[in-house]
Amino acid sequence: MPIPILDPAPPHGKAQLHGFTLLEALVAMALLGILVGLAAPAMSGLRTRQQLQGQGEAFLNSLVLARSEALRRQQRVSICAQGLDAQCDTLGRWQQGWLVFADTNHNGLRDSGEVLIEARSAVPVAIQVGVSNTVKTYFSYNAEGRSASASGAFMAGTWRFCRPGSSAGWQVVVNALGRPRIEAYTVQLCS
């Protein structure tokens, strides 16, 4: 059977043009603009949720680090709100960041000579960090990896990461044994 030969030349000697007209390109760009405009608010909300979750996970990781370092070093390790010059903020402004340090004198404050294990920078300006009163300024793990206050009593607490105007937030909860977990929560008031 013979193989047919295709003639690349168009019929009647007219050349076929491939492409878009200016009008077609403008319509396509307008449709693309509308779709991007519709998707932008949803992407903004997703970005906000991811940013909140990321800050909560960073704090959770610092708690896990503090606990493991207390076990490894066999000494008290504390985490506190960060103040000036890698010292603890006694007012408990956790949005300024936090420090993980070997708390050799068991006072919940980073003093000169105490080893700084980790320093986390401030959370983004739009994010608020709220804490329960039991952990207002610091949280500690003893040499056995259990949460303990400066007096030796157990500690438990909650750190909430939220954004004003958003109904979703993330919280890090530490139970009486010192085990931290992270979970989503519905924000009632973010301040």
Question: Which keywords apply here?
Answer:
minor pseudopilin epsh fold; alpha+beta; 191 residues; 8 strands; four-stranded antiparallel beta sheet; elongated
Question: What's this model, at a glance?
Answer:
The protein is built from 1 helix and 8 strands, in the order αββββββββ. It is of the alpha+beta class and 191 residues long.
Cα gyration radius (Å): 29 Å
CATH architecture: 3-Layer(bab) Sandwich
What is the CATH first-level class name?
Alpha Beta
Which spans have pLDDT < 50 for at least 5 consecutive residues? none
The amount of helix comes to: 25-40%
Q: How many helix segments?
A: 1
pLDDT averaged residue by residue: 87
SSE succession: HEEEEEEEE
Largest sheet: 4 strands, antiparallel
CATH topology: minor pseudopilin epsh fold
- Residue share in β-strands: 15-25%
The count of strands amounts to: 8
The secondary-structure class comes to alpha+beta
Distance between the termini: 83 Å
Specify the CATH homologous superfamily: minor pseudopilin epsh domain
Q: In the residues, how many domains can be counted?
A: 1
Output the strand order for the largest sheet.
3-2-1-5
Shape: elongated
Describe the structure.
With 191 residues, this protein is of the alpha+beta class. The chain has one domain (20-186): minor pseudopilin epsh fold (3-Layer(bab) Sandwich), CATH 3.55.40. It has one helix spanning 22-73, and strands at 77-81, 98-102, 116-120, 128-131, 138-141, 157-162, 168-174, 180-186. The strands form 2 sheets. It has a 4-stranded antiparallel beta sheet, covered by helices on one side. A 4-stranded antiparallel beta sheet has the order 4-6-7-8, covered by helices on one side. The longest helix is centred in the first third of the chain and has 52 residues, at 22-73. The N and C termini lie far apart (83 Å).
